[in-house]
Every structure is written in C-alpha cells, then in structure tokens.
C-alpha cells in the first residue's frame, strides 16, 4: 500500500483516500479491535487482518500521509490519539473527536453542505439511564450538526468529495454516530465504503450511498485535513 501511495503521484487527498481504501475491500470485519479501558492499559493495535469501522478509517487516513512503515505507525498514533499519547483517555472515541483539535485528522464540513442541517446539543458518553458508554471517561458537552436523511439531496451529494468521512448520526443519548465510512464517487454512482458488521456483509464493502443514507436519521460529514 505504501508503494501504491508513492506511485499515485500528485493526486488530491480525497482521491488518495479513495485509492487506498479500495485495497481493503473484502477485509473481514472485526468488532472491538482496540485494546484498552479505564482499568486495562492501552495497547497500540495495527491489524490489517480484520477491521472495525473506526480502525478502517484510522489506517486509511494514516496511509495517506505515509511514505514508510515507521511513518505509518506514527501516523496511526497521531490519527487515533490526541497529542500522540497512546492512552485510553487520549483515544478519539467519538467520530466528532476527529475534528475537535488543531491537529485533528479532519474538519467538520456538515453545516456548509446545504440547507436543512440540524444542530443538537449532546452529552457524549452519557447514557439515558445515567450510566456511561465508556466508564472512567468524562461526559463531554458538544453540539453535533447533521443533515437529516430526507434532506440529503442531489445538491448535497454533489458537494461531497471522494474521501469524505461519513458518520451515521444517531438520536441515541450519549452518542454522535453509530457507524462511519468513506464517501466515494464511482462511475456507477456514489458509494458508502465501510467495514460492515451486517451478517450479509461482515467485511469491508461498497454500499449504495443513497440507499444507506435512508437507513439512518442523517449524516455527519468530515473532510480530511
């Protein structure tokens, strides 16, 4: 993959993400690939044999910035962890964490993609019953802007670029999205490239973007820096 990246030459960041992400098609899905918690030391995991939806994005983003194996590992760390510290509290656990610091991998472009966006005040990590999704981590107050699925028009899709990171917005208290993937424009129409846990897939697949969007409450869109 590093050789492929080098051979790609002067292409856009989005096209590079599209090229590299395609190499993972068919890779088996693996749930909860990362190791670490408030009570278990964090381990740096780099495993191409199986990916979940977040580690898939980690690897593709890191590969797009790397010329050597050592650079790739360093870029996985920089992508996955705030300030490059391999520690559970520093991990970017939520999709919106990818756009929250100066050195974050991406920026949130959702609000500028078209009319009809909705902004919701969320308390990330706080379950509706008072518990936490990630024990030992704080609750974070954050406004999440998303485009409702019925507002994802042809104009909105026309403003998306290959390589944009797509999060499936959720109404569940304490979460921003429930799944993530990559937007790719193809000759046969736009696809949602993702590590799918669905029994019919259980691997990295290209799904119809339009069809997928209509199975979700809406989308959050980040663009790689």
TrEMBL record:
SUPFAM superfamilies: Cysteine proteinases. This is DUF1460 domain-containing protein. It comes from Antrihabitans stalactiti. It comes from the Bacteria. InterPro entries: AmiA-like, Papain-like_cys_pep_sf. Gene3D superfamilies: putative xylanase like domain, Putative xylanase like domain. Transmembrane segments: none annotated. It holds the Pfam family AmiA-like.
